[in-house]
TrEMBL record:
Species whose genome carries this gene: Bos indicus x Bos taurus
Matches recorded under InterPro entries: LRR_dom_sf, LRRC14/PRAME, PRAME
GO CC term, one of those recorded: cytoplasm
Protein family per UniProt: Belongs to the PRAME family.
Name of the molecule in the record: Preferentially expressed antigen in melanoma
An example Gene Ontology biological process: negative regulation of cell differentiation
Length: 504
């Protein structure tokens, strides 16, 4: 018997390599004779399937993998989590899909086969393989095996029923990132199989990222994907407005979309006003088909100025997140935003990179007041907001009871206004992080040369005011661009410098 003292046990085992567990030995033994392993699958206990599959996948035993897929006793095969830990070999991945393809072509399917979902996402079901290889049964219901049967009854059932009729299609879950003109070989093979078995193999994609890829290739891929499965879409391409017009019919079929990012859409100089209106109408009318949209990000959209009402008026439900960044907007856009029904319940508002210097911020003040009961994150970085404009916003900011993060870096703000902001936000108990620009007094000259000594003094003053007000736990961090390279210099208790300031 081991003594009860854990430290004794740890000292005894230190430096001694743990022997292989019984499951590992059993898996290794079976796979030494792949043909025997395949024959044994019908009688193999359920708890041996995951460790044996892991060993076969890592060892590239393609024939054993094919047989195990066709006898898989769980509703879900989380292959993506396994591929994350073991760099997939194309032949191994193809073996899994080929086996599934053969099975879907049969009128009847093996008795033990329970597979409904092949999950290729790498960040889901992380604990499945660990739990089952350790023989722990606390797995989510989707991954639970077939109920155990008494041995006599089980043998009787197996003698009577060997095959069962084909059931519903198998779903393949995958996140897609479309870059360049060529796809990863594994994704290309998956798309090929999904196209061949379109009625029986449903390709479902929760997250879709589109970067640089020809529109013809994108549309060909989207024909294979179940578009109503897409919940998170990023279009991060340098597209002409006309190119976007070719894509938006697919957008309108993504009825379960929750998050949409559109970036870098520009208008060619020769585009006529009528053509612009046509393409913009094509886009915005699709929003009527997106009843679950909660988060909208519009970045570097060249057609937005004077047309924000056209873009937002077709939204069917209130947004939680609205980011309009690096865009030109007009005073009428800001006025519309302050009364748009779709932004009445915002939790996250971002206007970073939107030049507000020449605009009246009264509408923005109204918008902040309107969303004060829900707003949690506010980003006004690089907006060119002056002291007088910022001061006008302070009463509205003081009403934001749910605000947790406020960032307004890159605006020319004085120390006096920063102190006023601090006093106006003292009552916001949930506000924990403020990212502010280096105050105007911390620059040596009009060329924008930052004086770190002055910045340290001003930052210390703000920290002292926070302590005196009983809010020492609130984090105030300043950020300013390096005058040499443009990279951000952050300052909390000490400056975090970019390499330009480092001694050689």
């Amino acid at each position: 018997m081991w003594p009860e003292d854990d430290s004794f046990r740890s000292r005894f085992t230190m430096g001694v390599r743990a022997p292989p567990r019984l499951l590992e030995l059993a898996s290794q033994s079976l796979l030494q004779n792949e043909a025997l392993a395949i024959v044994a699958l019908e009688e193999l206990p359920t708890e041996l399937f995951p460790p044996l599959f892991m060993a076969a996948f890592a060892g590239r035993h393609t024939q054993a993998l094919k047989a195990m897929v066709q006898a898989w006793p769980f509703p879900c095969l989380p292959l993506g989590a396994l591929m994350k830990d073991h760099q997939p070999h194309l032949e191994t991945f193809q073996a899994v899909l080929d086996s599934l393809d053969i099975l879907l072509g049969q009128e009847v399917r093996p008795r033990r086969w329970k597979l409904q979902v092949l999950d290729l996402r790498q960040n889901t079901h992380q604990d499945f393989w660990t739990l089952w290889s350790g023989i722990k049964a606390s797995v989510c219901s989707l991954l639970e095996p077939e109920p155990a049967q008494p041995m006599q009854k089980r043998c009787k059932v197996e003698a009577q029923v060997v095959l069962k009729p084909a059931q519903a299609p198998v779903e393949v879950l995958v996140d897609l990132c479309l870059k360049e003109d060529t796809l990863d070989e594994t994704i290309s093979y998956l798309l090929k199989k999904a196209k061949q078995r379109r009625s029986l193999l449903h390709l479902r994609c929760q997250k879709l990222r589109i970067f640089t890829m020809p529109m013809q290739s994108i549309r060909r891929i989207l024909k294979v994907v179940q578009l109503d499965s897409i919940q998170d879409l990023e279009v991060n391409c340098i597209w002409k407005l006309a190119t976007l017009g070719r894509f938006v019919p697919h957008l309108g079929r993504m009825g379960n979309l929750r998050r949409l990012l559109l970036s870098r859409i520009h208008i060619l100089p020769r585009t006529t006003p009528d053509q612009e209106e046509h393409f913009i109408d094509q886009l915005t009318i699709q929003f009527l088909n997106l009843p679950h949209l909660q988060k909208l990000y519009l970045d570097s959209i060249s057609f937005l100025e004077g047309r924000l009402h056209q873009v937002l008026r077709c939204l069917k439900t209130p947004l939680e997140t609205l980011w309009i960044t690096n865009c030109l907007i007009s005073e009428s856009d800001l006025a519309y935003l302050s009364q748009c029904p779709s932004v009445s319940q915002l939790k996250d508002l971002g206007l970073s990179g939107v030049n507000l210097t020449s605009l009246s911020l009264e509408p923005l003040k109204v918008l902040i007041e309107w969303t004060s009961a829900t707003l949690q994150d506010l980003d006004l970085d690089e907006c060119g907001i002056m002291d007088s404009q910022f001061s006008a916003l302070l009463p509205a900011l003081s009403c934001c009871s749910q605000l947790t993060t406020f960032s307004f870096c890159g605006n020319p703000i004085s120390m006096a206004v920063l102190e006023s902001l601090l006093h106006h936000t003292m009552g916001l108990s949930k506000l924990s992080h403020v990212l502010y620009p280096s105050p105007l007094e911390s620059y040596e000259d009009v060329r924008g040369t930052l004086h770190l000594g002055l910045l340290a003094q001003l930052h210390a003053r703000l920290k002292r005011l926070l302590c005196e007000s009983g809010r020492s736990s609130m984090v105030w961090v300043s950020a300013s661009p390096c005058p040499h390279c443009g990279e951000q210099i952050f300052y909390d208790t000490e400056p975090i410098l970019c390499p330009c300031y480092m001694p050689a």
